[in-house]
Amino acid sequence: MTTVVLLPVKVVGAGIDAVVTTDAEADQKRGREAREAEEKAKKAHEKQAKADAKAAKDAAKAKPGG
After folding, report:
1. How deeply is 36 buried, as exposed, middle or buried, from its count of CB atoms within 10 A (0-12, 13-18, 19+)?
2. CA distances from 28 to 15, 34, 62 (A)
3. How high is the pLDDT of residue 30?
4. Would residue 56 count as lying in a domain?
5. pLDDT of the residue at 63
6. Which pLDDT does position 6 carry in this prediction?
7. Domain of 15?
8. What is the tally of structural domains in the chain?
């Protein structure tokens, strides 16, 4: 009989756990988002640097006598 009484409590508790975000989970999410943003910015910077280097190389080739 105790099992029957505890079952609804366990089900409700599991539902609440699934919906509620803990501080640790929120911190992990913010950290993950920050790392992803940093990686995206790094890739954009590298892409821009590569494009700038190519443009400089093309400009040097286009110069007369260069």
Report:
1. exposed
2. 21, 10, 51
3. 96
4. yes
5. 80
6. 65
7. 7-62
8. 1
Each residue of 10-66: pLDDT tens digit? 766 777 777 778 899 999 999 999 999 999 999 999 999 999 999 999 999 988 765
SS3 assignment for the chain: CHHHHHHHHHHHHHHHHHHCCCHHHHHHHHHHHHHHHHHHHHHHHHHHHHHHHHHHHHHHHHCCCC
Residue 1: inside a domain, yes or no?
no
Q: Answer whether 66's CB lies under 8 Å from 60's CB.
A: yes
Q: Report the C-alpha gap between 42 and 30 in whole angstroms.
A: 18
Does residue 38 lie in a domain region? yes
